[in-house]
Amino acid sequence: MFQGQKWEEGQPHARSAKLHKIRRWATALVAAFLVFALGYGFGQGNLSFHSQSPVNGQLPDKLDYSSVNQVYKSLRDNYSGTLSEQQLIDGLKHGLAESTKDPYTQYFTADEAKQFNDQLNNSFSGIGAELGKDKDSNLIIVAPIAGFPAEKAGLKPQDIITTINGQSTSGISIDEAVSKIRGKAGTNVTLQLVRNHADQLTITVTRQSIQIPSVNTKILDNNVGYIQITTFADDTSGLIQQAADKMKQANVKGVVLDLRNDPGGLLNAAVDVSSKWLPQGTLLLQEKRGNTVVDSFTAEGGDELHNIPTVVLINAGSASASEITAGALHDNKAAYIMGVKSYGKGVVQQLINFGDGSQLKVTVASWYRPNGQNINKKGISPDKEVKISDEDAKAGTDTQLQAAEAYLNK
C-alpha cells in the first residue's frame, strides 16, 4: 500500500525528468483494491514538492553501465526467445526502481502510468456492476451501477454469473472475474446468468469507459448524515463540497464519514475533506525526512461541518489519505473513530513525470499525524472497536454503521 506520494498536475514536455512546479498533489497507494466488474481501484495518498537536491549525494552522477552491457550482450547472443530494445530498456528502468527494495518506489511505462492514473480516478472500461459471492460461493451481481451498461442490459442484483464469454465461473475468484469482464470500451462480453435460481439467461453487454463518483451521500434515520468516500480522486473535492452543503441544509444532528475500504488517493482531496470539519490553519499532517519537517499541510477553510458530531468509520482497508483524514479529524477533536484498526501506511511518494509519458513513483518522506505519530505499519486504532462478524456479513448486517448511528443518536 502507498500512503503519501508526490506528483504534479499536468504532463511535462521537457526532455528531462524535471518536475513542473505547477501545483502540489499527493497520492498514496495501497495494496488493497476495490472490486468492481469494471475494474480495480488502487488507492494513493499524498504528494508535495520538495527540493530537488540529491538525497543520496554520495552516488555518482552517472552509473557505469559496462557490466550491464555484458549482461545485455549475453542475453542478445544466447536468449532463445524474442526480445526488443524497448523491452530491455523498460526492464532496466523497472530494475532501477526495484533495486531500492522499497515496495512503494516504482517505475511506470507510459501505458502503466495511464493505468495508474485511471485507477486513481476510478476510471475504468467495463460494464459497471459490483461483483460478489453468495453463501454458496456462486459469483453474483451485487448491484449494477445506475446509468451504466450492466443496468441498461438488464442485469439485476443476485443474478448468478455461470459463464463469462463461455468460460465457467466455478471456483473463480472475484478479482479473476473482474479481469475477464473488463475490456476495451466498445467491445462485448457475454454472460450466462441464473436468475431467481431458476431462469437461465444469456446477456451480451457492451463495455464502456466508466467514471465512478468517489463520494456517496444520504440522510439516514433520525436525521443523521452519511458520507462515504471510496477513494480520494480528482472529483472528491467538488463532491465533498456538495455533500457538506447537503448536510448543512438538512441541519443534520450528526455525520457518519465512512472511510472503510478506502485505499487512499490525492492529498489535496484529503486536505479538502478535512477542511469541511476543521477551521482554516488547523494542522492536518507534517512530512519529515528523518527528524526534519520538510512540509506541513493545514486546513484551507470552509468548515461547514465544524462542531457537527461526527463518527469516522475505518477498517483494515482504510489506508493512506483515509488515514490522514481520520487522524486529522480525530487529533483535532472533530470526530470519534469506530471500526477496526486501519492499514497503516505512513510514507510519502513523489510522482515524477517524464517527457515520454512514463513516471517514477519514489518514496521521499514520512508523514505524521497532528499528534506527532507516524502510523506506518501501525495503523490508526479506533476509539471504539466494532467488528463485523462473518454471520453479520452474510446477513448484510452492518454492525459498524449501526454502532455509529447509535452513538450519534444518544
Per-chain topology:
Elements: E1 4-8, E2 24-26, E3 34-36, E4 39-41, H1 66-78, H2 85-98, E5 106-108, H3 110-120, E6 123-126, E7 129-133, E8 139-144, H4 149-152, E9 160-164, E10 167-168, H5 174-181, E11 188-195, E12 199-206, E13 208-211, E14 215-220, E15 224-229, H6 236-249, E16 254-258, H7 267-275, E17 283-289, E18 292-298, E19 310-314, H8 321-331, E20 336-339, E21 347-353, E22 359-368, E23 384-385, H9 390-395, H10 399-408
Parallel strand pairs: 1-21, 15-16, 16-19, 19-20, 20-23
Antiparallel strand pairs: 1-2, 3-4, 5-22, 6-13, 7-8, 9-10, 9-11, 11-12, 14-15, 17-18, 17-22, 21-22
Helix pairs in contact: 6-7, 7-8
Account of the protein in words:
- Helix content is 24%, strand content 29%.
- By secondary structure, the chain is α+β, with helices and mostly antiparallel strands.
- Among the domains are: 124-211, PDZ domain (Pdz3 Domain, Roll); 215-346 and 372-408, Alpha-Beta Complex (2-enoyl-CoA Hydratase, Chain A, domain 1).
- The strands form 6 sheets. Strands 1, 2, 5, 17, 18, 21 and 22 form a 7-stranded mixed β-sheet that branches.
- Strand 17 and strand 18 form a beta hairpin.
- It starts with a strand and ends with a helix.
- 42% of the residues are buried.
- The model is unreliable at 1-51 (pLDDT under 50).
